[in-house]
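Ticket 4471: requesting a sanity check on a complex prediction with NAP. Repro inputs:
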Amino acid sequence: MGKIKVQPNRYAIVTGASKGLGYAYCEELLKIGYNIIGVARDCSSLKQLEEKYPNLKIEAWNMDMSIFENNQKLFDKAKEFDVEIVINNAGYGVWGYFQDSSLESEMNMVDLNIKSLHALTKLFVQEFQRKGYGRVLNVGSMASFTPAPVFASYYASKAYVWSLGVAVNTELKKTKSKVRVITLCPGPLKTDFWNRSSDQKDAKYKSTVKVMKTSVYARKSLKSGLKTKKKNFIITGATNKFVKKLTSFAPQSIVLSSVYNYQRKRK
Ligand SMILES: NC(=O)c1ccc[n+]([C@@H]2O[C@H](COP(=O)([O-])OP(=O)(O)OC[C@H]3O[C@@H](n4cnc5c(N)ncnc54)[C@H](OP(=O)(O)O)[C@@H]3O)[C@@H](O)[C@H]2O)c1
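Returned structure tokens:
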């Protein structure tokens, strides 16, 4: 992966490491020489990576990060390791009309997408400031940039991720810190995300925009996220960059109608 220099024995923590984008981030980090602490409710899939990368260390921690106390527990346990990178990736969505969607699922989503990410960002920024190095990469989304009828709470949670990250990273740059909090903004990827968010076992994935391969997105966004000194957030791929431009310049009523039409056809 180019010029990123990894010190021996450094670790990267990845939440939501068991599948999808988190698993792909673990593999990309291993390829460039990081040891991994993978976190998910069921990390058994990480065994495959242990076999593939026998010279690196892989810790697999089964933890439900929507339980708030687990954030402090994860942080305390991680103090035994020289952690340099934290990727706050665990997350899901609750699709549907707001009047029909489950309040319980949405509150659990807030606990994971917002509260866990917020707590881990703070704890590790403080720790990285003490050490003088380290980087938090928060997984936002292209959903960070507009409200979304029929997927309202998920998009709102990703707007929080983006807003928090951009503000904190600006503080860090203005105070000449070496620590960074970079927000990664993927567009649609073919993962289990869509099954969980629409509450279906085998949701048919539909997208009107070109979908990037998850491993390709992981490699490219990780490279940019680890390298950048000035950027607050990373948009990867020409289609996503074009969509971002469109949502910035088009009248909001047109953006909202387009997102409504895109999201209501999901199920
Ligand atoms: N897929 C997309 O199109 C897309 C687009 C933009 C952004 N994103 C974002 O990318 C991130 C990864 O999503 P994905 O697409 O890779 O989805 P995914 O395939 O469903 O993976 C989600 C990961 O999060 C873990 N997880 C779920 N609930 C958890 C909890 N309570 N505590 C700890 N870990 C938990 C899952 O493992 P367990 O089930 O074992 O806990 C799994 O490893 C999310 O933040 C998502 O919002 C996805």
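Notes from triage: The mean pLDDT is 94. Leaving this open until the requester confirms.
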